[in-house]
C-alpha cells in the first residue's frame, strides 16, 4: 500500500464516507465492487489513494485512479462504477471546493500575472480529470498527515487545502476552475443556476426563471447548460429530484407519497415510474434496502 493509501486508510475505518477533523474534507472507503448506477457528485475534488472509479456522463466515459484526480466544478448527476475488493478497498479523499478559497488564490495569481492567457471557453465543462503530479501528491500527503490530529487539522488544514487547490490550478486542464471564479463566464453563470436548483428542487422551477436569474436568453441558457452539465435543465432537475428522493427513502422513514411531494412531484404515480426507470428499482424496494 502506498503512503497516500496508508494515510487514507487510517482516516477511513468504516465503509462509506468518513468525516475528518476538517469541515468539507472526507475520506471514502469501499471494499466491494460497485456496479454501474446513478448517483450525484458534489462540487469538489476527488483524489484516489487506492483502487479505481469509472464515471459515465451522457456519452462520455472517464476514470480516476492513483494517477488521476477528478475535479467536479459543478454538482453533476452521473453513473458510477467502483473497482474494489476486501484485499484492496477503494480509498478516496473528497475535498469540497470553497469558492471563497478559490477566489482568494486566483486573485493572488492575477496580482502576480500567473493567470493563463489561453483560457478556452469551450473547455469550461462541469468537470475535468487532472494528472497527479509529484507536487500534487506532496500536497495530498501533507493534508492527510495533518488530518490525523485535531489540533494540526485546525491549525494547518485550511492552508493545506489552499495549497491543494493551487496545485490543481497549475493543471493544463484547469480552465473550468478559473471559469468558476470569473463572474462573466458561461460556467459561472450555469453554476449560479445549479445552486438555485439545489435550493429549490422541491418547488416549481421554470427554465425561463433560471435564464433570467443569470441574465441570459432562454435559448443561450439552455445551450450553455447542456454544454456544462451534458443535460438539459429539465433533465438535470429530474435527476436531482430522484437522487434526493432516494436519499430520503433510505435515511428517513417516509412514505413514498410524502417523498414524491417533498422533492417536487405533483403525481406519485409519475414519480414512481421515473424512479423505477432511473434506478431500476421501485421507491418501495429502495426504502426496504
Describe this structure in words.
The chain is an alpha+beta fold and 289 residues long. The protein folds into two domains: 3-180, Jelly Rolls (Sandwich), CATH 2.60.120; 186-288, Arc Repressor Mutant, subunit A, CATH 1.10.10.60. It has helices spanning 3-11, 99-111, 134-146, 150-169, 175-181, 186-200, 207-213, 218-229, 233-251, 256-262, 268-279, 283-288, and strands spanning 16-19, 25-30, 34-41, 44-50, 52-57, 60-64, 68-72, 76-83, 90-96, 127-131. The longest helix is centred in the middle third of the chain and has 20 residues, at 150-169. The two termini are 33 Å apart.
List keywords for this structure.
single chain; 289 residues; alpha+beta; Jelly Rolls; Arc Repressor Mutant, subunit A; 2 domains; six-stranded antiparallel β-sheet; four-stranded antiparallel β-sheet; globular; DNA-binding transcription factor activity; sequence-specific DNA binding; transcription; AraC family transcriptional regulator; transcription regulation
Tell me the strand percentage band. 15-25%
Helix content bin: 40-55%
* Second CATH tier, the architecture of the largest domain: Sandwich
* Spatial ordering of strands, largest sheet: 1-2-9-4-7-10
Terminal Cα span:
33 Å
Tally of contiguous helical segments: 12
Rg, rounded, reads 20 Å
Low-confidence stretches: none
Structural class: alpha+beta
CATH fold title of the largest domain:
Jelly Rolls
In total, how many domains does the architecture comprise?
Answer: 2
Which whole number gives the mean pLDDT?
93
Sheet with most strands: 6 strands, antiparallel
Shape: globular
The first-level CATH class name of the largest domain: Mainly Beta
Order of helices and strands: HEEEEEEEEEHEHHHHHHHHHH
